[in-house]
Specification:
Blueprint lengths: L11 H4 L10 H8 L5 E2 L11 H9 L13 H11 L6 E4 L1 H13 L6 E6 L3 H9 L3 E6 L8 H6 L5 E7 L11 H10 L5 E5 L9 H4 L11 E6 L12 E4 L2 H10 L7 H12 L1 H24 L3 E2 L6 E5 L4 H10 L2 E2 L1 E3 L5 E8 L3 H16 L1
Parallel strand pairs: 1-11, 3-4, 3-5, 5-6, 6-7
Antiparallel strand pairs: 2-8, 7-8, 9-10, 10-13, 12-13
The structure holds pyridoxal-5'-phosphate.
Length: 371
């Protein structure tokens, strides 16, 4: 049998695929180092854990999980629309915002024909899904201070550019440009090119009104905004996010989505999370206070720390980042090295934890730097 008819043969894009590299899990590190207490500050998860209202909703609905969810999860779609001040027709609930990224690329970009443009480094999922789809991925390097060189980004756009991805606040840098700059980009792009603004961390921004185009989304038919429930709402393990965009494009995404992309549990959890404004507000308070405190403490320890509007800090330690990462692991603290995926081998990304977790990190770093 020739190779091309081999049942194990796959598309070349899939054959050579290097997968997404996630943060290490607490269980992995407990086992590897024989530790009983491990603090994870690697994946920008909610420091307060899961909302009590969400946990109750999951328990109350546990007996229903043998049922398929309601097709298209319309109750959740309506609740998301209320949350973001939009018509439900503009909302696409998805299996994480990663699910929406995947849908957008497959709906907008033709394999071998179109290209996608983003900054470098950027959230690696954009590139991974583009590659799997056989779509060229072009990147404009960030400036040395990690601010956005808009002209360099625009220079990569041509008549075959299907999507431009911008993450704001940015991952892994925390940089957050004013909304006026996004507006200028949206207006400058050709009408066939969709600007996808990934606002996974916008909740943590001190002044979202000045940095988000979402409140004026109806004025920008060529803009889609992504929101996730994995960070500020504490639902990373359940996989829930949404895309917010022109109703026509949103309708196409909903039509082509695999059926039941949002699980019954994620639907109930999402509805409860949107109700629990106390948990959400407390998350924002803890994160913003922790961000200010941790940033100052890390600087005192000789780290370079970039300004962040997010729930993490980009940090360049005074010792090689790999060494610091390993030394922290041995002390039971997981942070995120940025060598794979982001190509920033001298930097670490550190999620803001609870006040106790932040203090434990500072104490551990003091010991590591003193050694
Ligand atoms: C964490 C993160 C997301 C969230 O993805 P989900 O699939 O919703 O968990 C999206 N975009 C960026 C840039 C992120 O850092």
């Amino acid at each position: 049998m020739s190779n091309s008819t081999n049942a194990r043969a796959v598309r070349p894009e899939a054959q050579a695929f290097s997968p997404y590299v996630p943060g290490l899990t607490i269980a992995e590190i407990k086992e590897r180092y024989g530790l009983s207490d491990v603090i994870k500050l690697a994946s920008n998860e909610n420091p307060l854990g899961a909302s009590p209202l969400v946990q109750k909703a999951l328990k109350d609905n546990a007996g229903l999980i043998f049922r398929y969810p309601q097709s298209g999860v319309p109750r959740l779609q309506a609740a998301m629309a209320r949350r973001f001040g939009l018509d439900p027709a503009c909302v696409v609930p998805g299996c994480g915002s990663n699910g929406i990224i995947d849908l957008l690329i497959r709906v907008k970009a033709a394999p071998g024909e179109h290209n996608i443009v983003a900054f470098k480094p950027c959230f690696s999922v954009y590139q991974l899904q583009a590659r799997l789809c056989g779509v060229e991925f072009r990147q404009a390097p960030l400036r040395a201070d990690f601010s956005f060189p808009w002209d360099d980004l625009s220079a990569l756009v041509d008549e075959r550019t299907a999507i431009v991805f911008v993450t704001t606040p940015d991952n892994p840098t925390g940089f957050c440009p004013p909304a006026a700059e996004l507006e200028a980009l949206a207006r400058a792009l050709p009408p066939y090119c969709l600007l996808v603004i990934d606002e996974a961390y916008m909740d943590f921004c001190a002044d979202a009104a000045a940095h988000s185009l979402l409140p004026r989304l109806n004025d920008f038919p060529n803009v889609a905004v992504l929101r996730t429930f994995s960070k500020s709402y504490g639902l990373a393990g359940l996989r829930l996010g949404c895309g917010l965009m022109h109703p026509e494009l949103a309708g196409v995404l909903r039509n082509v989505s695999i059926p039941f992309a949002v699980s019954l549990a994620a639907e109930e959890a999402g509805l409860a999370a949107l109700e629990d404004t106390a948990f959400y507000q407390e998350t924002l308070r803890v994160t913003r206070e922790g961000r200010t405190w941790l940033s100052a403490e890390l600087k005192k320890l000789g780290c370079e720390v970039w300004p962040s509007q997010s729930n993490f800090l980009l940090v360049k330690p005074p010792r090689p980042a790999r060494e610091v990462f390993e030394a922290l692991l041995q002390r039971g603290i997981i942070v995120r090295p940025l060598s794979s995926g982001y190509n920033l081998p001298e930097h670490l990304r550190i999620s803001i934890g609870t006040a106790q977790e932040n203090a434990a990190l500072v104490k551990a770093l003091q010991a590591v730097f003193a050694a």
